Amino acid sequence: METIDAFIKFLGSYPLWAKLLAVGGLFTTAATLALAPRHPTTSKDSSTASAFLTISSVKLFPANPNAEVQIIAYVNGSKFQYPSIAGITWLKVGPGMSPQIIEIPTAERYETRFELNLKLPDGIKRLVSQTVLPISELPFTADYKLHPVAGETREAAVGAVVSFSLAPNP
Fold first, then answer.
1. CA 24 – CA 164 distance, rounded (Å)
2. Residue ranges per domain, the chain?
3. Which of 6, 36, 52, 93 has its CA 20 to 30 A from that of 118?
4. How far apart are CA 66 and CA 71, in angstroms?
5. pLDDT one-digit tens code per residue, 63-120
């Protein structure tokens, strides 16, 4: 009560318009704090500061033991490439492929899509898809189908499948 009395005496020395503004400001602040939604202030530990995209395998249709690939993953607009080790730009496709683990920023939702460059003895083909996967719950595992591009036309047949997962830890 002493604080309220001190505040009233303090405001008493000001003109009426200043008193109304001060009291109105207090009511506005109190109403904002009472009505605004609150977000929990729990701190994220280091284990949830990142998520991980794992590209585990690629299957080509038809299979071709001489084929090499580059996989481009897009997650929430950011581009990630596999292989990504310095000096290595192409990867042979086969059962002995090592998975690629890519650390990505955490988000509430992951808009994910892939493209693939296929290097064959007769040139490079591009494979794409119109599908963007909206992923909101981790862990998530899927096979992503890609289609060859001929000129400016995406073919109907599936040319490759990229197996991948998104998880809070690798």
1. 56
2. 2-35, 46-167
3. 52
4. 16
5. 988 899 999 999 999 999 999 887 889 999 888 888 899 999 999 999 999 999 999 9
Q: Which residue has the tokens 């005496």?
A: 9
CB 73 within 8 A of CB 55: yes
User: Which pTM value belongs to this model?
Assistant: 0.69
Q: What's the Cα-to-Cα distance from 10 to each of 1, 6, 32, 136, 145, rounded to whole Å?
A: 14, 6, 24, 54, 72
Q: Cβ of 133: how many Cβ atoms within 10 Å?
A: 16
Assess contact for 73 and 80: CB atoms under 8 A: yes
Q: Are 83 and 89 in contact (CB under 8 A)?
A: yes
Contact (Cβ atoms closer than 8 angstroms) between residue 118 and residue 107: no
Q: Which CATH architecture has domain 46-167?
A: Sandwich (2.60)
CA atoms within a 13 Å half-sphere pointing along the CA-CB vector of 46: 0
Residue 69: both structure tokens together: 């690939």
Per-residue three-class SS string for 22-51: HHHHHHHHHHHHHHCCCCCCCCCCHHHCEE
The closest of 92, 82, 140 to 116, measured between CA atoms, is: 82
